[in-house]
Amino acid sequence: MAVEIRELECFLVLADELHFGRTAERLYLSQSRVSQLLQSLERRIGGPLFERTSRRVALTPLGKEFLTSLRPAYAALERVVENARDFASCVKGKLRIGFQGTANDIILAAVSVFQSQNPNCLIDTCELPLNDPFGALRRGEIDAAVVMLPVAEDDLVLGPVFSRQPQTLTVSTRHPLADRDSLDLEDLADSVLIAISGPAPGYWRQAQAPTQTPAGALIHRGPEYRTLQEGLSLIAADRGGMVLCRRSAEQNRRADIVNIPLTGVPESALGLVWRRGEDTPSLQAFAAHLKED
């Protein structure tokens, strides 16, 4: 049977006071309610905790043993609650989160739950340029960024990784590979991939648009794009293909392009990134809500 916290509190106060009247006053209860709580606890335990007469109240041997074990456990529970209260009181102000592309269901759910659980902290979201995943974060315009992996920046911390997705090759319906049911990266030898432009680091751009197959065959670099819609337009105009995660591909279907499952490349994933040394209680609370789907 589950023990009620109120019963344990009543027992501890009565063990201190050894008087029902004073116990009732400290707990803002009636004496009859104190008696009810104590009797309920004794039934759960299976034996009397106090000897009660008209003249005195004293702990039984069982009561003394129970008190010895309960005090440190109850004190530890109080510390847990107090620590949680202190943490919650720090989650306040404003938290600014940036994201690349479209905020998916995981991000939106994390924002919603965070806001409902932390009404003293206003969470703001903004879209980041696809071609500059880290710039706004380094300029202090946002507190954290949800970006496509990989992330290997010395001044940034990679937190939870989520939304892992298989990759696809997105091409025009007129592309030579458009009628394939599936592809391996080796099949892209001598093909053209359009690439993200801008200040993103080379390793990150290479992950989004490889320039060679695992066997070393060349994959040509096509025109560059800054936004996803700009990239899709280049694909439709037969300027090249694009490696795109399955979720984004499904969300951006068009009649003039096709999405073909692609193996031989790491799966796509998103990660929450923030400046090293700046993981505030608000940021920690938000990061805890970002989970695998």
Give an overview of the whole structure.
The chain is α/β, with parallel strands linked by helices and 293 residues long. The chain has three domains: 5-89, Winged helix-like DNA-binding domain superfamily/Winged helix DNA-binding domain (Arc Repressor Mutant, subunit A), CATH 1.10.10; 92-162 and 270-287, D-Maltodextrin-Binding Protein, domain 2 (3-Layer(aba) Sandwich), CATH 3.40.190.10; 167-266, D-Maltodextrin-Binding Protein, domain 2 (3-Layer(aba) Sandwich), CATH 3.40.190. The protein has helices spanning 5-17, 20-27, 31-45, 61-90, 105-117, 135-138, 202-208, 228-236, 246-251, 281-287, and strands at 50-52, 57-59, 93-100, 121-128, 144-148, 156-165, 167-172, 183-184, 192-196, 220-225, 242-245, 257-263, 268-275. The strands form four sheets. Strands 4-3-5-13-6 form a five-stranded mixed β-sheet. A four-stranded mixed β-sheet has the order 8-12-7-11. The longest helix has 30 residues, at 61-90. It is elongated, with a radius of gyration of 31 Å. The model has no long low-confidence stretch (mean pLDDT 91). Belongs to the LysR transcriptional regulatory family.
Give keywords.
single chain; 293 residues; alpha/beta; Arc Repressor Mutant, subunit A; D-Maltodextrin-Binding Protein, domain 2; 3 domains; 5-stranded mixed sheet; 4-stranded mixed sheet; 10 helices; 38% helix; 26% strand; elongated; WH_DNA-bd_sf; DNA-binding; LysR_subst-bd
CATH architectural type of the largest domain = 3-Layer(aba) Sandwich
Strand content: 25-35%
CATH H-level superfamily title of the largest domain: Periplasmic binding protein-like II
Structural class, judged by helices and strands? alpha/beta
